[in-house]
Automatic annotation (TrEMBL):
<protein>
    <submittedName>
        <fullName>D-alanyl-D-alanine carboxypeptidase</fullName>
    </submittedName>
</protein>
<keyword id="KW-0121">Carboxypeptidase</keyword>
<comment type="similarity">
    <text>Belongs to the peptidase S13 family.</text>
</comment>
<dbReference type="GO" id="GO:0004185">
    <property type="term" value="F:serine-type carboxypeptidase activity"/>
</dbReference>
<dbReference type="GO" id="GO:0006508">
    <property type="term" value="P:proteolysis"/>
</dbReference>
<keyword id="KW-0378">Hydrolase</keyword>
<dbReference type="InterPro" id="IPR000667">
    <property type="entry name" value="Peptidase_S13"/>
</dbReference>
<dbReference type="Pfam" id="PF02113">
    <property type="entry name" value="Peptidase_S13"/>
</dbReference>
<keyword id="KW-0645">Protease</keyword>
<dbReference type="GO" id="GO:0000270">
    <property type="term" value="P:peptidoglycan metabolic process"/>
</dbReference>
<dbReference type="InterPro" id="IPR012338">
    <property type="entry name" value="Beta-lactam/transpept-like"/>
</dbReference>
Length: 423
């Protein structure tokens, strides 16, 4: 009885110490967030212990924010829940001497980074190829995307059968070169305010440039056919109806290789195509909204504050998410994936991707998180490893500030370091 009483008292003392420590942490964070620097912006912050699920700090965590690329956390979760281990590259059916194919939205085929040719090698085995493109039911640009961002890599057109990442890569010293080479004659060697005309595939690259330029191209069925014919060195027929029959699947790269690049490099094109890929695994219709509906109605039906989820990348300012929803999904990922796999899917502070220059640890990273940036908005959501070895899950959202984002990041870094050092 005496031993039991002693243990009970010890537990109470430990709980009291923990409670006192947490109060001090909350007070210090509150003081930082009440600084005049943050007066004219909207800030939300939620931090939880990943193991105990105790809330360490919260402010405006139930309010909706423009998340920017934090939206990719929801896209990542959808991809991990729906896609198989390898990316579905094609759906196909063989009838007689003809191979009938339709796209899945696979972004890796001849992509400048992945340079995957699985589908090309497969197609070369058939003399007669019929391509069906009418299963793509998604607008090329998302709702709320900026109309004048069309010539920049971060706003590549979405499509059902992407080739070369839907971009042309221009480079050269002595002479201008292009990948795919089909566009070489579409490049004008002159200095010009824009990289491409808005309504056609006419590109500009100054003759004295020595860097590499990556520009989205306009996608249509005729161009897709020509690019495919060029690489296959054979004719491809565009068809309006796909024949009846059981389709088979061809797979390409490991899905996590796409997930990781999407998250670490914050690649908007890959994010958009991952939602389309997820839709292809649910039905024959390539509509990213179907994948969003599915995941919200099933695996994320327990969200207390369902988001306004408009696209896969976070380019749209129509997106609205709460810090609590972000933490909810991050907690699911933490509970469902091994740590060594989960953390490699996120940028590491001071080491990789969009966090390479921020949130540097002592001898190893202490932050594994997804950043999100739009004009006057900066958000960061992910995982924090404390000096005591605990894992915290957080979502830190800042909207509508007018100061340089570097000042906001410095204040965030101070708060995150406080959690690292004291919890």
């Amino acid at each position: 009885m005496k031993n039991t009483l002693c243990c009970f008292v010890a537990v109470l003392l430990l709980a009291s110490c923990a409670s006192t420590k947490n109060r001090k942490i909350r007070k210090e964070i509150g003081r930082e967030l009440n600084d005049r620097l943050l007066d004219n912006q909207f800030t939300g912050f939620l931090v939880m212990d990943a193991t105990t699920k105790d809330t360490i700090f919260c402010k405006n965590h139930l309010k909706y924010f423009t998340p920017a690329s934090n939206t990719k956390i929801f896209t990542l979760y959808t991809s991990l829940q729906v896609l198989p281990e390898k990316v579905p590259a094609l759906k196909y059916l063989v009838q007689g001497d003809t191979l009938f194919i339709q796209g899945t939205g696979d972004p890796t085929l001849l992509h400048p980074h992945f340079q995957d040719s699985t589908a090309i090698d497969f197609l070369k085995n058939y003399e007669h190829i019929a391509l069906y493109l009418n299963n793509f039911n998604t607008a090329k640009f998302g709702a709320g995307w900026a109309w004048d961002d069309y010539p920049y890599y971060y706003q590549v057109e979405r499509s059902g059968f992407p080739l070369y990442g839907n971009v042309v890569t221009v480079f050269g010293k002595d002479s201008i070169q292009a990948i795919p080479a089909y566009f070489k004659n579409n490049i004008v060697a002159m200095e010009y305010p824009i990289n491409r005309e808005a309504d056609r595939n006419l590109f500009y690259y100054a003759a004295d440039r020595t860097d590499t330029l990556t520009v989205p191209f306009r996608v249509d069925s005729s161009l897709t056919r020509v690019l495919l014919e060029t690489v296959l060195k054979k004719k491809v027929q565009i068809i309006n109806e796909f024949p009846e029959g059981d389709k088979e699947l061809l797979f390409s790269v490991i899905s996590d290789s796409v997930n990781k690049r999407m998250m670490v490099e914050s690649d908007n094109f890959l994010a958009e195509q991952l939602l389309i890929l997820a839709a292809s695994s649910l039905s024959d219709t390539l509509d990213g909204f179907r994948a969003q509906e599915y995941i919200l109605e099933n695996q994320l039906s327990d969200l207390q504050h369902p988001p306004r989820w408009v696209d896969g990348s976070g380019l749209s300012r129509y997106n609205l998410f709460t810090p609590q929803s972000m933490v909810h999904v991050l907690q699911k990922l933490f509970d469902e994936l091994p740590r060594d796999r989960l953390f490699t899917l996120f940028p590491a502070g001071g080491v990789s991707g969009t966090l390479e220059d921020w949130y540097t640890g002592d001898d190893q990273p202490y932050i594994y998180a997804k950043s999100g940036s739009l004009g006057n908005n900066y958000c960061l959501s992910g995982y924090l490893i404390t000096h005591t070895g605990k894992t915290l899950i957080f979502s830190f959202m800042n909207n509508h500030f007018l100061r340089p984002s570097s000042e906001i990041k410095k204040r965030m870094e101070a708060i995150l370091e406080l959690l690292r050092d004291t919890y």
